[in-house]
Amino acid sequence: MLRFDVTKKEFTSLEQCAMKGEKILERYDFQAAIVKSWEGVKPLLGLPRAYLVGQEITPHNSVGDSIDLLAFDPDDSSLTVIELKRGKHKLQLLQAISYASMVATWTKDELIGNIQRDINRDPEELIDFINDNELNKDIKIILVSESYDPEVILAADWLSSRYGVFLTVFSASFHKHGEEIIVNLEQRLPLKELRDLYDVRGGGPRSGGKVSDVTWEDVLPKLKYPFATKALGLCRKEKEGEPSRRRFGSFRTGMHGYDWITISFREKYLNIYMGGKPEDAEAAIKRVFGDATEVSTWEGGHSFNVTTQEQFEALVKWLEMKE
């Protein structure tokens, strides 16, 4: 990894280090940091809208081991098993598969019972998503480790490409910069040049099965911003959307350089989720919605939240919504 000095117009190499050498513990340091920084880390893992269910979760009462991190994706009502390792471990993939098979049998009540409210900032909203949709039995798996044995990578690639298992592998590299340690997450699988062979995240989520009879009238009282009624009315003028998932998928296509733009109605804000990466996208969004707007980058695009009346009025113009 290189550090770019803009003033001197030169690169300098950052010293690579390892978790063990820096006395970074797998659970009490690395995992704890991911939990504390979940909102910023989840887009890097390809889960930009996922909720963190909890950590160190026992998948079945017959085993003593626990899942490092468990997440819920409201886009397709699926669970994601995230397994972390310091260094490398030949059994990492086997552990993740075993845990995935166990949580795939969970009922909604079991899932809700495992939500850890102390690390989840929106537990009631998460519970609503779980209750309003059938759980997807296709479990996602994410592996994060400093390095991997070849057999782990080969087996993961075989399961993904041959059997359609939603399995993503990241390498975590650590670099020293003064007193700071810089962490880089690099996707190893699926290979980005072969991404068309796999499900495209965001553009077409897998079906989670039959959804319940939730209506927008059921959702509206749970939205806690003053422009919720108007926002919902403007969206419904053009399409009905998916009230059980609280979103209007691909509300716009081919606009502002994005392949698609989706609007999700969260309890405390509107989430605008875009597929595609037009040039200078973050700067363009800030020009429209204000410099204070936090723009998140995920593998396939960007997202940001609309929290104020001013931002909402800018959104109406930006999306050319008919009032």
What is the overall pLDDT average?
Answer: 91
Given the C-alpha coordinates, what overall shape results?
globular
Helix and strand run = EEEHHEEEHHHEHEEHHEEEHEEH
How many separate helices? 10
Q: First CA to last CA: what distance?
A: 49 Å
- Report the radius of gyration as a whole number of Å: 21 Å
Task: Assign the CATH architecture of the largest domain.
Answer: 3-Layer(aba) Sandwich
Given as residue ranges, the uncertain stretches (5+ residues, pLDDT < 50) are 193-209
Strand content: 25-35%
* Oligomeric status: single chain
Specify the helix fraction band: 25-40%
Biggest sheet features: 7 strands, mixed
Structural class: alpha+beta
Task: Explain how this protein is built.
The protein is α+β, with helices and mostly antiparallel strands and 323 residues long. It has 2 domains: 14-197, Trna Endonuclease, Chain: A, domain 1, CATH 3.40.1350; 216-318, Aspartate Aminotransferase, domain 1, CATH 3.90.1150. It is 28% helix and 28% strand. It contains 10 helices and 14 strands. It has helices at 26-36, 38-41, 92-103, 108-113, 123-132, 150-163, 216-219, 228-236, 281-289, 309-318; strands spanning 2-5, 10-13, 15-17, 51-57, 67-73, 78-85, 140-145, 167-177, 180-189, 247-255, 258-265, 270-275, 296-298, 301-306. Strands 3, 4, 5, 6, 7, 8 and 9 form a 7-stranded mixed β-sheet that branches. The longest helix has 14 residues, at 150-163. The protein is globular and about 60 Å long. The N and C termini lie far apart (49 Å). The relative contact order is 0.11. The model is unreliable at 193-209 (pLDDT under 50).
